[in-house]
Amino acid sequence: MPENSATILAENPPATATRSARIWGRIRTSTFWMVAIGFAIRILAILVLHTYKFRTTDQNFGFGWEMGRIGEAIASGQGFSNPFHGITGATAWEPPLYPFLIAGVFKIFGIYSHASSFVLLAINSFFSALTCVPTFLIARRCFGEKVAVASGWTWALLPYVMYWSTRWVWETSLSGLLLATVFWLALTMEERDGLKPWIEFGLLWGIAALNSPVLLSFLPASGLWAWYHRARRGKRSFGGVVVASVIFCACIAPWLMRNYRTFGKPVFLRSNFGAELRMGNGPWANGTWMWYLHPSQNKLALQQYKEMGEIAYVAERKRQAVEWIRQNPGRFLVVSLKKFVYYWAGDPRLSKFPPPEVKNALFLASSILCFWGLIRALRMRKTGAWLFFWLLLLYPAVYYVVFPHKRYRHPIEPEIGVLAIYLITEAEPRKKKREKAS
């Protein structure tokens, strides 16, 4: 092709190329397409990998674990009960929202059926794909559109974040969606007027509490953040805080009343903290989950649970853990430090594929990029940097006391990803500057 013809084509690209560029420009910044494509890939993974076919050798316990058992009890007309094997009575071992979702699916599609597992994994996949929206909005508000586009598409396409939604019947994906949405809402509260944002704030936190109470560790920081930044703009917040508080209490009050009537004493949302504390602290504690103490895995523990009742059993487990901590404060600190390391670097338990060294190296790399990105954001005084700080400080804290698990990091993965991608995008212009200088 003659040189002048090539120049003309470069300066005047074909109409089809221009149209394609415009279409791609709209798609790449569209949260609709992020959600749609992310959801489609997750559904494809469920179908191709047959992840809806849970094993039945453990009487379907791997299909939802305690929440699946409770869902079965509800669907069978036995109420919110029986979290383990057999008839064990009323429970508050798990919060109510997700078990009731499981029960609804069981009612329609059959208890522990392949159809139910596919529907529940599809619902989880929708929650996971929908998380692209708050992830994109958080990144755009704090770091600009470039980081937002990369963060949204990374969440939509990255296989790692799809794992929990396509393989686990649990509240994990919904927790990630709720926490990211609340995070974004807290960022925007300062520029919104009226009671509507406060109504949304109270309602979202009420739903989050009923889904996973551990999310509440971020509630004080998000509320104080919104109040402080509104105060800097001269906006009043007292009335809104009252409204949000009333709505939040109205959301959780029925469940608290149910627990009080059922157990004869106050139980806040879920009852099992003492048992979880014991499974991370005691003789032979090494910083990982001592799964062999769980009533679903230990026949003696299950027998004690049945004989003592849930509340007394949990209280006894808590007493054992606290006594060990008091008698071994130095050992407790060492174990807690291990839990911190395992939370951010991956636990050392063996796995066939990928090898634990590879898996944990990738896990640790994402944590390093996240913290490095946070430090960079704080130094550059980026919008919301301190809100990221409080989330990363407060949310994981309880797991340094009980025990870590990779699933426990998933609810804050959207924010971790945003910070990591921000750091990567910041490195590009700095590299170009050094090249120009040389």
In words, what does this structure look like?
With 438 residues, this protein is mainly α. Helix content is 70%, strand content 0%. It has 21 helices and no strands. Helix 6 runs parallel beside helix 10, helix 7 runs antiparallel to helix 8 and helix 8 packs across helix 21. The longest helix is centred in the middle third of the chain and has 26 residues. The mean pLDDT is 93.
Principal-axes shape call? globular
Quaternary arrangement of the chains shown?
single chain
Helical content (DSSP H or I, runs of 4+)? 55-70%
Q: Strand content of the residues, in percent?
A: under 5%
Q: In angstroms, what is the radius of gyration?
A: 24 Å
Most strands sheet:
none
Number of separate helices: 21
The H-and-E topology, N to C, reads as HHHHHHHHHHHHHHHHHHHHH
Summarize this entry quickly.
This protein has 438 residues and is mostly helical. The protein has 21 helices and no strands. 70% of the residues lie in helices and 0% in strands.
Task: List the SSEs and their pairings.
Elements: H1 3-11, H2 15-28, H3 31-49, H4 65-75, H5 97-109, H6 114-130, H7 132-143, H8 145-157, H9 159-167, H10 172-188, H11 196-211, H12 219-232, H13 238-263, H14 273-278, H15 299-308, H16 310-327, H17 329-345, H18 356-379, H19 385-394, H20 397-401, H21 413-437
Helix pairs in contact: 3-6, 3-8, 3-9, 4-5, 5-6, 6-9, 6-10, 7-8, 7-10, 7-21, 8-21, 10-11, 10-12, 11-13, 15-16, 18-21
